[in-house]
Amino acid sequence: MQSSLSNCWLPALHQERLLSGRRASCSNAANPLPTTRFASRQSIVQGGGHGLDSARVTAGAARGAVVVAAAGRPAPGGKRPGPPGKGSPGGPKGAKGKPSGSSGSSAKPKPKAPGGGAAKPPQRAQSSSSSSSSAGGDSRRPGAAASGLNSRMPRPAGASAAPPEAVQPPSSALSRMPVAKPMTRGSSPAELSAFAAARDAADAAEARARKAKPAGTAAEPDDSTAAAAAAAAATAAAAAAGGPLLGRLMTANTLAPTREAGGAPSGSGSSSSSGGGGSASALAQQGLAGPGVAFREAQDDGGGDDDEEEAEELIGEREEGEEEGEEGEEEGDGDGFLLVEDEDAGEGGADDGGDDEGEGEEELFPEIQLNLPPPTKVKVKAAEYMQSCVTVADCPPPRYPEFAVIGRSNVGKSSLINMITGRKDLALVSKEPGKTKCINHFIINENWYLVDLPGYGFAKVGFQGRQQFETFTKEYFNTRPNLAMVLLLVDASIKPQRIDLEYANWLTDNEVPFAIVFTKADKRRKGLTAAVRDSHVTAFKRALLRDLAYLPPSLLTSAARGLGRGELLSFIAGLRVAYERSGRLEAIRQGMI
Ligand SMILES: Nc1nc2c(ncn2[C@@H]2O[C@H](COP(=O)(O)OP(=O)(O)OP(=O)(O)O)[C@@H](O)[C@H]2O)c(=O)[nH]1
Ligand SMILES: [Mg+2]
């Protein structure tokens, strides 16, 4: 069996899995890792610091090494450290401040917490604004679907396993790369409309079936009647709209409506990824994907109400409704791309203004530290929407490192993209959960991609809708060759949600590199102080450590206030350099991946 670890461009990120030995309870792994391989793991360096900024602290350490934060060091032998002690809520840093491009530098404590909302009102059909299309390269890797590491991000022969060498702004190498043209390829409007219509029809059928059930019998969408109705509606709608791929994809999905609890990325997620996603992948490989026309999701501002529903909570009850549409601030200056040394690195941007309440002792967790180049100040000079699609085959050519944002519906993914780019309306934001329904590509500074994805866990999208989202997002995670890092967003204003933990586990099991971005740090309401928010963050980390030996990098943000923007940009910049040096892009260009 091939070593999965060696295939990961950033193997360090998944050391936590080797070390933890993953618990059986998180057995949604598409393909469990061969434990033997990990015996030979190398460079785990015990170091200080934590959080994204700590990369700087460890910059001089062995290249490619994983540096584990001081506390909770793992027992020799790769055992998961003992349960993290009871922590005190980390000191908050409220957030305020403008999204400045300053990169985080100084070791910033870990995230603290705010939270955001979760599931909500009914989903909306998406509309499209389109643009023209062109043919993009097929980004999918043969046979990659859902096969975990083995299928994911293979390292090109000759490419060094160890991450980059030191530190140097990436610009030169990256700037030599061909500049992406405004997009071209994507699912056609007809396909996307069909997709939306079919999903809505299926949801409606499902809702009817649910209502028909006697109260008290927790109506499950996987009810055979509902499933059959949903399948029929989906297939018919897709066929009527002439979307062969989508029609088949949905058919495939509805053929196996074996729902598992949670509707999250757990067991069902895994299977959808290897099943439905695989099917989609196969179809696409056969050239069945529809014509490519760039297409943008409609800006229908739902304004739905905010009752939070069905947000499965791991701990405690969710308190109240949702946020009120605040958004990231603007920054957007200019031309061009830049990565310049950040003189005042360490401040994490101009965003740390906020409240200090809750600041105090901070619980330390064992966190993986990536040996990335030192923080740099990054400016987003250009940020453009490229296209939307629902299959990996229709994604833009994988020319640049790609960073994808995922999280529960309404957690603030689109807002975070706007915050990162300093553009107010680049990604579509809505109070209404379920706003984003496609894989949306944005090209930043003409040399890296940001990707907005549909959220998970939105009850009102219905089982059918959830399955479809999960199928293509997971297929995307498992097969997109240039995916450098996933940002898993977690609402810091609410208690840890099981679905988020499951998603983190799914990403880990599938060897998808990810970092955790806590959102809505600014959010306040009765009972939600900075200290409470921090306790949410701490509780989430602690919960994650039940399954993992080490935490992935994490950061606290507020799109509304610009908190964490500099750190995030700096983190991404470091990853871009590392990614470029890994040789993967070149391998992709040469068709090796
Ligand atoms: N207070 C506060 N609200 C936020 C923040 N980020 C996002 N929101 C609000 O949360 C709601 C959802 O934001 P979106 O960015 O659309 O969330 P999303 O995760 O993209 O949602 P879906 O596309 O539906 O999955 C909107 O009302 C935003 O204004 C934040 O940092 N602070
Ligand atoms: Mg969104």
Q: Helices, strands, pairings?
A:
Elements: H1 15-20, E1 44-46, H2 54-57, E2 66-68, E3 128-130, H3 148-151, H4 171-175, H5 189-212, H6 224-240, H7 244-255, H8 267-274, H9 276-285, E4 295-297, E5 338-341, E6 368-370, E7 376-379, E8 383-389, E9 402-407, H10 413-421, E10 439-444, E11 448-452, H11 462-479, E12 483-491, H12 498-509, E13 514-519, H13 530-544, E14 554-556, H14 565-581, H15 584-589
The structure holds guanosine-5'-triphosphate and magnesium ion (MG).
Guanosine-5'-triphosphate binds at residues 116, 323, 325-327, 407, 409-415, 429-431, 433-436, 454-455, 519-520, 522-523, 558-560.
Number of strands: 14
Taking Cα atoms only, what radius of gyration do you get, to the nearest Å?
22 Å
Shape category:
globular
Assign the structural class, choosing from mainly alpha, mainly beta, alpha/beta, alpha+beta, or little secondary structure.
alpha/beta
Mean pLDDT: 58
Helix content: 25-40%
Task: Please summarize the sheet with the most strands.
Answer: 7 strands, mixed
CATH architecture label of the domain at 5-119 and 308-589: 3-Layer(aba) Sandwich
CATH fold-level assignment of the domain at 5-119 and 308-589 = Rossmann fold
Query: Any idea of the CATH class of the domain at 5-119 and 308-589?
Result: Alpha Beta
Spell out the helices and strands N to C.
Answer: HEHEEHHHHHHHEEEEEEHEEHEHEHEHH
Report strand %: 5-15%
Count of runs of 4 or more consecutive helical residues = 15
Q: Output the CATH homologous superfamily of the domain at 5-119 and 308-589.
A: P-loop containing nucleotide triphosphate hydrolases
Cα distance, first to last residue?
19 Å
Spatial sequence of strands, sheet with the most strands:
8-10-11-9-12-13-14
- Which consecutive residue ranges, at least 5 long each, have pLDDT under 50? 1-7, 14-185, 213-358
Bound small molecules, by name, code or SMILES, are: guanosine-5'-triphosphate, magnesium ion
Region (Disordered): 72-239, 251-370
Biased composition (Low complexity): 97-108, 119-147, 225-239, 261-273, 280-292
Cofactor: Mg(2+)
Pfam family, one: MMR_HSR1
